[in-house]
Amino acid sequence: MTCPICNKPATPEHKPFCSRRCAEVDLGRWMTNSYTLPDTTPEDEAEDEQN
Questions:
Q1: Which of 36, 29, 33, 14 is nearest to 3 (CA)?
Q2: Tens digit of pLDDT for each residue in 1-51?
């Protein structure tokens, strides 16, 4: 398994990351909303919610 941040091999104590630094980078991205899920709402439903 490789680290999702830097692609180095993951270490057992920080899995799935290679280091504490990469784990904290990932946490920071979650906390600042850098990661988002795509909106899969059909256009018809989105228009209904706005009205």
A1: 14
A2: 999 999 999 999 999 999 999 999 999 999 999 988 888 888 766 566 665
pTM above 0.70, yes or no: no
Spans of all domains in the chain: 1-29
Q: Which two tokens stand for residue 27?
A: 């946490």
Measured between alpha carbons, how far is 8 from 4 in angstroms, rounded to an integer? 8
Q: Exposed e or buried b for every residue in 14-32, given b needs 16+ CB within 10 A?
A: eeebbbeebbebbeeeeee
Q: What is the dihedral of CA 28, 31, 34, 35, to 10 degrees?
A: 110
Instruction: Say which amino acid occupies 5.
Output: I
Provide the total of helices (H) and of strands (E) in the chain, helices listed first: 2, 0
